[in-house]
Amino acid sequence: MVGMESFIPVITIDGPSASGKGTIAQCVAKALDFHYLDSGALYRLVALQALRDGVDVANVDALVKIAGNLNVDFQGEQIFLDNALVTGKIRAEECGIMASKLAVYPQLRESLIKRQRDFCREPGLVTDGRDMGSVVFPGALLKVFLTASVDVRAQRRYNQLIEKGMSANITDLQRDIQLRDERDANRGIAPLQQNKDARLLDTTSLSILQAQNKVLKWYEECCANKWV
Ligand code: DC
C-alpha cells in the first residue's frame, strides 16, 4: 500500500491540537472533491471505547486490542462506532486528552496505519493529524505543517465547544493545549514536528478562506512541478 500515494494525490496537513487543520483539510478536500481523513478521530475513537470500557491508559494490551477491533464507519462528516453516532462525543476534551496519552504506544499506532492508508483512493486524499506526512503518507504530493499561537488555538477550541453546547473554560483550554503539545511533541514515536519537506502555514492571523487558498495554491504548484 505504501507507494499508492505516489499515483493518487495526497495532501497531508499535520499540526498541533486546535490549529484549525481539520477545518482547513475539510475545506481543501471539498474544493478538490477529494476524500478526507481525520486521523485524530481514530485515536479519539480508541479513547472513547477505552473510557467506556473502563480500560486504564497504562493497559497497552487492552488498548491495542480496542484499536484492532474498532467497528467504525465514516459517513461524510458523521462517525459511527458500533453503529451509534459518536461525532460529537469524540470531540469532548476528555477524549482528546485520553487520545493524546494512548497515542504514545507504538503498537497502537501501528495497528491504526492500515485503516488510515485505506482512505487513499481516487481521485485523491486530504488528511490531517500529527504524522500523516512523516509516517502514514511519506510519499504525499504536498505536506503542510499548520500551526497558530496557543491563545488563538484555545479561543478557537472554546468557540467550537460552546457552539456544540458543551461547557468550556478558556484558561483550562490553554493549559490543556500546552500540555497536549508537549506530550505530542516529546513522545518517542511519530512526534509532532515540522518535517523538512513540509511547508509551514501559520494561521494565527489568517481566515479559513485565506488558509484554504494558500494550500490550494501550493497544491497547484506541486502538481505543475510533478508533471514538468
Ligand atoms: O487532532 P486531534 O486533536 O483530534 O488528535 C487527538 C490526539 O490524537 C492528539 O492529541 C494526538 C493523537 N494523534 C496522533 O498521535 N496522531 C495523529 N495522526 C492524530 C492524532
Describe the 3D structure.
It is a single chain. This protein has one domain (10-213): P-loop containing nucleotide triphosphate hydrolases (Rossmann fold, 3-Layer(aba) Sandwich). Strand 4 and strand 5 form a beta hairpin. It has 228 residues and is of the alpha/beta class. The protein is 50% helix and 15% strand. The strands form two sheets. It has a five-stranded parallel beta sheet with strand order 2-6-1-7-8. A three-stranded antiparallel beta sheet has the order 3-4-5, with no helix packed on it. The protein is globular. It starts with 9 loop residues before the first strand and ends with a helix. It contains nine helices and eight strands. 2'-deoxycytidine-5'-monophosphate binds next to helix 2, helix 4 and helix 8.
Question: Can you give keywords for this protein?
Answer:
binds 2'-deoxycytidine-5'-monophosphate, alpha/beta, 50% helix, three-stranded antiparallel β-sheet, five-stranded parallel β-sheet, 9 helices
